[in-house]
């Protein structure tokens, strides 16, 4: 049985009669608000309504006439109506709030829950999950570690966004992760607002535009500046020895970043060549004088750090207990005289350009860059000593051209970049 009333005041509440069966009282001034009268004497305030966009009607209980005043009951009712109109279920929010206070509403806990769920559903690879958690969450989003997720607003994100302007790529990746975390929290009613505070950072001038991937250094002006920063005679850049060796090796070999950073000592065959196993092919890099200087310095570095002796990886970072993964900060320092930040693929394209200019045999061009076009059934075995010797001469020609671009070299003298780096 339902009764409709035009009044809702204290006198009306006190005059409510108990009956043999439960019944409801509706109010013409407050659509959706009901009072449920139980035969045992419990009189409760309810909101009855349907979620916007459809679905079954929801009944939300606020409390009894003994625990809530009329004003408090109306306030809860209006909040429920607002949530229903936004397409949110107040009952789920209540359950979620119970869960979030039992677990935690801090940003880090929700972020970890999101990443773990993505990995368990195979939507994130194991490697990307590790990257998201150990780098993006732990380092790039460190500013928000002490925040409850409901406390993070657009202003906080703007301050963080501006503070990280020097690393636009990783900032963009971290912002994408944060956006996904907020979307995850919203769908589970873990945040009060249905609006993602990161949304505005992906529109207009804030859109991150990745660097064009076909750029290379100009040989007449940019390569000399880049080489000078690697030399760094005044020790201003403060790039560690291991990282400098990795970047110099990229410059004089044209190898891919992953092939350099994941290189193992077992790939070094005496003082003859470096062998890189690829799918169905082997890339051979002859060991020239410049490359030998790099390898000798790396061996010396390992001997200076006893804990590294016996490690398989050449570029092993003892702080992280795994190979170096990111060179970006060092590339930023080495690019400070340029109007853009050099990246590994740009170094590789520059090396290919210099190979073209030296007119080395085309098969050697493909071999040095590890391109499949160099490998066909009619070519001789590239592992033979004679072929490695010819390939070495080609690589030496390319490295001589790179040496000539170094601004600190005196014309006419038989000095190389290695003579400045490894005295």
Explain this structure to me?
By secondary structure, this protein is α+β, with helices and mostly antiparallel strands. It has 16 helices and 10 strands. The chain has helices spanning 10-14, 70-85, 90-102, 107-120, 126-140, 154-163, 168-187, 222-231, 241-253, 257-261, 289-304, 328-334, 344-358, 362-369, 385-404, 417-421, and strands at 2-5, 23-27, 33-37, 43-50, 57-64, 268-269, 273-278, 281-286, 316-317, 322-323. The strands form 3 sheets. Strands 1-2-3-4-5 form a 5-stranded mixed beta sheet, with helices on one face. The protein has a 3-stranded antiparallel beta sheet with strand order 6-7-8. A two-stranded antiparallel ribbon has the order 9-10. A hairpin with a 5-residue loop joins strand 3 (33-37) and strand 4 (43-50). Helix 4 (107-120) crosses helix 7. The chain starts with a strand and ends with a helix. The relative contact order is 0.07. Residues 374-381 have low confidence and may be disordered.
Blueprint of the fold:
Blueprint: E1 2-5, H1 10-14, E2 23-27, E3 33-37, E4 43-50, E5 57-64, H2 70-85, H3 90-102, H4 107-120, H5 126-140, H6 154-163, H7 168-187, H8 222-231, H9 241-253, H10 257-261, E6 268-269, E7 273-278, E8 281-286, H11 289-304, E9 316-317, E10 322-323, H12 328-334, H13 344-358, H14 362-369, H15 385-404, H16 417-421
Helix content: 40-55%
Main sheet: strand order = 1-2-3-4-5
Order of helices and strands: EHEEEEHHHHHHHHHEEEHEEHHHHH
> How large is the share of residues in beta strands?
5-15%
Shape: rod-shaped
Q: Uncertain spans, ≥5 residues at pLDDT below 50?
A: 374-381
- Rg computed from alpha carbons, rounded to a whole number of angstroms: 33 Å
Return the average pLDDT rounded to an integer: 85
Structural class: alpha+beta
Largest sheet: 5 strands, mixed
Strand segment tally = 10
């Amino acid at each position: 049985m339902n009764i409709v009333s035009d009044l809702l005041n204290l006198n009306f509440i006190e005059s409510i009669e108990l009956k043999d069966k439960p019944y409801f009282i509706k109010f013409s001034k407050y659509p959706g608000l009901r009072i449920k009268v139980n035969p045992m004497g419990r009189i409760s305030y309810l909101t009855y309504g349907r979620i916007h966009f459809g679905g079954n009607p929801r009944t939300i209980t606020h409390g009894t006439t003994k625990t809530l005043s009329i004003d408090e009951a109306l306030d809860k009712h209006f909040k429920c109506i607002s949530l229903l109109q936004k397409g949110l279920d107040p009952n789920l929010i209540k359950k979620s709030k119970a869960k979030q206070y039992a677990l935690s509403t801090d940003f880090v806990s929700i972020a970890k829950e999101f990443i773990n769920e993505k990995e368990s559903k195979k939507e994130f690879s194991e490697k990307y999950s590790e990257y998201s958690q150990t780098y993006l969450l732990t380092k790039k989003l460190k500013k928000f570690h002490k925040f409850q997720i409901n406390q993070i607003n657009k202003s906080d994100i703007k301050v963080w966004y501006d503070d990280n302007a020097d690393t636009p790529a990783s900032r963009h990746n971290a912002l994408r992760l944060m956006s996904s975390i907020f979307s995850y929290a919203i769908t589970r009613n873990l945040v009060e607002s249905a609006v993602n505070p990161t949304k505005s950072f992906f529109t207009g001038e804030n859109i991150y535009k990745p660097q064009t991937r076909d750029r290379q250094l100009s040989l007449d002006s940019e390569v000399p500046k880049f080489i000078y920063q690697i030399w760094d005679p005044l020790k201003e850049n403060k790039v560690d020895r291991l990282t400098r060796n990795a970047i110099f090796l990229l410059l004089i070999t044209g190898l891919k970043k992953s092939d350099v950073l994941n290189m193992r000592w077992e790939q070094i065959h005496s003082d003859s060549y470096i062998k890189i196993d690829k799918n169905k092919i082997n890339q051979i890099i002859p060991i020239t004088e410049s490359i030998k200087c790099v390898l000798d310095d790396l061996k010396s570095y390992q001997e200076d750090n006893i804990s590294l002796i016996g490690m398989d990886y050449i570029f092993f970072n003892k702080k992280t207990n795994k190979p170096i993964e990111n060179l970006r900060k060092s590339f930023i320092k080495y690019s400070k005289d340029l109007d853009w930040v050099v990246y590994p693929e740009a170094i590789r394209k520059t090396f290919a350009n210099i190979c073209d200019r030296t007119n080395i045999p085309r098969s050697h061009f493909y071999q040095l860059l590890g391109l499949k076009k160099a490998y066909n059934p009619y070519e001789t075995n590239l592992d033979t000593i004679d072929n490695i010797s010819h390939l070495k001469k080609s690589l030496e020609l390319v490295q001589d051209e790179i040496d000539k671009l170094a601004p600190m070299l005196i014309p006419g003298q038989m000095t190389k970049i290695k003579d400045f780096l490894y005295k």
